[in-house]
């Protein structure tokens, strides 16, 4: 999967990246195909668009590790675990 930090991304030319992007349905598919992190794929696509490359819009998959957090509970935990808190 593209989020595996121990996996090195393939070195891709701009041509290869564009071919993979234009054939994919989701950003996650591009990340898996290239071995790059999801955010790195989005960043590369943004840079290309800024230079006038007309990449198609892809569906962004929901990344589970970014959703479903109970932020109030996490704030309370951080305060509880802060040195000097008792």
Keywords for this entry:
single chain, 86 residues, mainly alpha, 4 helices, 0% strand, elongated, disordered N terminus
Architecture overview:
This protein has helices spanning 14-23, 27-34, 38-50, 71-81. The model is unreliable at 1-6 (pLDDT under 50). It has one domain (14-81). The chain has 86 residues and is mainly alpha-helical. The chain is built from four helices and no strands. It is elongated.
Give a short summary of the structure:
This protein is mainly alpha-helical and 86 residues long. Helices cover 49% and strands 0% of the residues. The N terminus is likely disordered.
Produce the secondary structure layout.
Blueprint: H1 14-23, H2 27-34, H3 38-50, H4 71-81
Rounded to the nearest angstrom, the radius of gyration is 18 Å
Order of helices and strands: HHHH
- Regions with little confidence, pLDDT below 50 for 5+ residues: 1-6
Discrete helix count = 4
The shape, in one word, is elongated
Number of strands: 0
* Main beta sheet strand tally, sense and closure: none
Determine the fraction of residues in helical runs and give it as a percent range: 40-55%
Q: Give the structural class.
A: mainly alpha
Query: What is the total number of structural domains?
Result: 1
Strand content: under 5%
Distance between the termini: 41 Å
Overall mean pLDDT stands at 83
